[in-house]
Amino acid sequence: MPVNIKPVVGAGLASCCTIFSILGIVILLTLGSFFGKHVEGLTGSTKDPENPDHVAKMCYVAAIIYGGFVVFCGLQMAVHRRYPRGVQL
């Protein structure tokens, strides 16, 4: 029994969201790694966070949320590939 799934967002928006989410994941994982290692450039002055380990954890949580967006938008792109161009959904 085939499932009739319709896309929630457009193909262009889904691909743009996927690209920006992947970029966000890379940046957040890098920042989380730097905060976790207490890199002096990020944690050396008095205006920087008091608990860099907590900041690193929050960067990792945000990266996981972006991962959810990658999955959702990737599935949206897959749904768009099922339908030929010009078909009313």
The tally of domains stands at: 1
Count the strands? 0
Mean pLDDT: 87
- The parts where pLDDT drops under 50 for at least 5 residues are none
In whole angstroms, how far apart are the ends?
19 Å
Q: What structural class is derived from the secondary structure elements?
A: mainly alpha
Q: How much beta, percentage-wise?
A: under 5%
| Sequence of secondary-structure elements | HHH
Radius of gyration: 19 Å
Subcellular location: Membrane
GO cellular component, one term: membrane
Pfam families: V-ATPase_su_f (PF23489)
Main location: membrane
Short description:
With 89 residues, this protein is mainly α. The protein contains three helices and no strands. It starts with 10 loop residues before the first helix and ends in a 7-residue tail after the last helix.
List keywords for this structure.
3 helices; 0% strand; rod-shaped; 89 residues; 69% helix; mainly alpha
Account of the 3D structure:
The longest helix has about 30 residues. This protein has one domain. It is rod-shaped and about 55 Å long. The protein has three helices and no strands. α1 packs antiparallel against α3. It is an all-alpha fold and about 90 residues long. It comes from Kwoniella europaea PYCC6329. GO terms for molecular function: RNA endonuclease activity. InterPro entries: Ribonucl_Kappa, RNase_K. Its main location: membrane.
